[in-house]
Amino acid sequence: MKRTVKLDATDLRIMAVLEKNGRITNSALAEKVGLSPSPCLTRVDRLETAGYITGYGARINLAAIGELVTVFAEITLHDRRMGTVSRFEQKLKTIDELQDCARISGDCDYILKFVTRSVSHYSQTIMKIVEESGLVDRYFSYFVVRSFEVGQRGFLDLVQSAD
Length: 163
Fold this sequence. Notes:
Layout: H1 9-20, H2 26-33, H3 37-49, H4 62-65, E1 69-77, H5 82-92, E2 98-103, E3 110-116, H6 119-133, E4 136-143, H7 155-161
Antiparallel strand pairs: 1-3, 1-4, 2-3
Helix pairs in contact: 1-2, 1-7, 2-3
């Protein structure tokens, strides 16, 4: 995933459109960014090869599937040595219920987002991390009581408007 491609405004427009609608046809994408279809497809292929575009996916309405529990957890490790961090992050990669993870600065080391079938399922999941890893000093869990869409926003729109 080497990023040797120098991005220009058209590349950013392409990625901004794809960020919001990964299923758009190449001809519609080309029209939106002011290119003909062939050069547009060439640019998309180049952006994929360079690692700027890493995949396409669907946003799933989890509430429509059933009663699921979303939990954010703050995790603080016993220490912050590279070996501890590496072992902890390897453990996290084995947890299917983990949806998102960020290593942060501040009072804790990580913020994790879980989606589980129930509160007891979450309890079992967090214990896999806390007890089995032996690396966690403390953790706090925050159960989501309501979430809502804030609209379809794209990071690349912000990048383009800064220019």
